[in-house]
Specification:
With 84 residues, this protein is mainly alpha-helical. Helix content is 43%, strand content 0%. It contains four helices and no strands. The chain is elongated and about 40 Å long. The chain starts with 19 loop residues before the first helix and ends in a 12-residue tail after the last helix.
Length: 84
C-alpha cells in the first residue's frame, strides 16, 4: 500500500485548507489504539449498538446517519488506513 511519509512537512501542505474535523482526523487515524479499536469494531455485528455507542463515545465520533443499509458503505470512512 503506497503511503507518504507523515513526518515530512510537505505531506501537510493541504492542512491549511481542511476543516477542523479533517485536521483532527489526520491525528486520529495515526493513533494505534484507535486503529486497534476500529479493527475490533469491524468484526462486530452492525446491530451491536452498545459497542458502537461505546466506540463513538471513546473517540468523540459522531455519525451523520443511523445504522442500516444506507450507511453500510460509509464504514470505510472510519478506516484508519491511509487512502491510496
Amino acid at each position: 500500500m503506497p503511503s507518504s511519509d507523515w513526518r515530512a512537512p510537505a505531506a501537510y501542505g493541504h492542512a491549511q485548507s481542511i476543516p477542523a474535523a479533517g485536521f483532527a482526523w489526520e491525528y486520529l487515524r495515526r493513533d494505534d489504539e484507535y486503529r486497534r479499536d476500529f479493527h475490533r469494531m469491524k468484526r462486530k455485528s452492525r446491530h451491536d449498538t452498545e459497542a458502537r455507542t461505546a466506540f463513538s463515545n471513546r473517540w468523540g465520533l459522531r455519525f451523520r446517519c443511523g445504522p442500516g443499509p444506507a450507511c453500510r458503505s460509509r464504514r470505510a470512512l472510519l478506516d484508519a488506513r491511509t487512502p491510496a
